[in-house]
Please model this.
Amino acid sequence: MKLRFTIVILVAIPVLVAGAFSVMHWSMNAAVIAVLGGVMIWLAYTRYARRIDQEVIQPDPKKATPARMYMDGVDFMPTSKNVLYGYHFKSIAAAGPIVGVITATNLWGWMPSLLWLVLGVTFIGWVSDYSAIMLAVRNEGQSLSAIAHRLIAPRTRIILFVFIFFYLLLIAGAFIGILGGILDPRADVPFGIFMLAIMGLLMGQALYRWKMDLIWVTAVAILVTLGSMAIGAKGLRPTTGTTPAGKPATTIVFAGAVNHAVEQISNGVNSITGQKPLYTVTDPTRSDPRLAATVLTPEGKVVPKYLDQTGAIKMLPSFIFWCVFLFVFSYLGTILPIWRFAQPVNYIGFWVTFLTIIFSALGAIIGAVRGLLGSPEMMKAVTFQSKVFASWMPMTQAKDAAGNILQRVPAIQPLWPMLFVTIACGAISGWHALFGSIGTARQLEYETDGLPVGGGAMFSENTLGLLSLVAVSIVGGAGAGAFASGVGKLLGIVSFGAIPMAYGTALGFGSFVVIVLTVTQLVFRMMRVTLGEWVGEVWVGFKNAHVAAIVSMLLTLVLVLSGTWIYLWQMFGASNQLMAALGLLIVTLWLRSVGRNPSYALYPMLFMYITTMAATIVTAYNLYASILSNPKIAAQPINSIGAIGMILVAALLFVAAAVIAYDAWRAWRKLGGEERAVQPAMAHD
Model:
């Protein structure tokens, strides 16, 4: 089959399926997404990715990889592709394919989100992951910065250091912000995370010091972790009350021994300010997890826990407390040897993620089958409630209680370019390329393992994005709560009702936090290394791991507390996708330098580069529109400082990417000139 025909088929399948449901006004079903995703992943891997692997990269199983040449037992360590696949998958699967997909579905509808997820991973996502790994493998395990120094220009290495650090800072801020927004209101989640840390420490000790059996240690660690998540959720009691307007409403009461104790800790921290907020922030996209949190008053009223009378989110001291809790967890993964904490924690996290995806997919299929066999309730449970398509240009302006507009200018969310940075992973991610080139590439045992590890893990992460799409679409709503509720519903179906909805939702929240936190610790680990290499020569103190880690975390905390969460997320998304474009740019130049066809990386790179540069400008404008042009929000100094800081970071990243693009264009032309100079000489010989 010719490559062009293969590409046409891969594009046509999702477009025709999504188009048919839209044109015929059929209700999309979760099972259809599960089947479509499985078929597309199989076709893309076997008919497109494998062909690029064989014809362009041409891996040689007999060629020594950096892991085998420089084996030191620390960074360079030959690892079985089966183990390395799981490690790479869990090291890249985080909040991006969950929160990004949910936010995009609410802004633009399920169809644009589905098409970008499926087509993005097919033609761009796996290309970025796999190519970055193989680029490093073919260049003795060097980082992207070192390779760019040689291929593009010496100054590119310094510019990339600056770009990468601030990019990682945005990732850390976005992830800590969303996780803190879950742990604060969800008293059922922290105990499971605490026990995950304990099991990670014990698992590292058992495997590497006590030399215990991997299977038994894995089984115990997973059972204890999942059991702890269940214990933390035990005693949840859905309680009925009324809204202030007198309408029936339901809230969750934390009546269990563990979660009630956790709730008391949060209340004790908030007593420092008399249960009053430090300040308020807004989220026009309604994606912050705290928006859905409610409490039951002594009068039996169900009222929002974090919203004031204007609809702004109250920043309580307990939010900062749980952010610090997350920093302590991440500090262990940043400072301790990789085998001691980060690796075993990620290994446990892989199984939690894998089981969540598998059981949720089975729930979608079982629900559809039971619906076809005559259960309308089951069919409704797996039928999409979200819109097929919402708008090309969603616009938001904050209003006060009387309906008066507070913003001088509206925030805008044009489908292009914002869809492609809001879904920051699942389709493509710069974090994958960065981590793959520095970490995974140094553990690849054989070159032929590159595709199943790099490409395979990326296609697997795509299933997490599709699960997020299904979860938010079958329950409606926004934020991480929609993911947890959707997973809870699917777990209830697959267990045939044995797992109640409230309990399943609690497990969904716990799974979400495990999925994201296991990657967040690696982000801080890379921030620590980058900061040391970047400014360690200016002040030697930054070469100290503890100093670099603490500075990175303090900067992250400032960013988290600085204002509108959703624009921090989209700023991370823009920088993340721009990092992916930079990775593809270096791959393209490398392929040209070695005389290979760079087209499969070149065209995705051009699309992502132009898209993300545009998205950076739009996001900076939205920061101005939502915060600086809103007198009520701008009156809070931390909001104004945070918005201005993020706008400056956006400008810094934009300029850095533009300079790299200019230098890369000069390098491209130089490589072309070298090719033309070689050809006459070869003809003369």
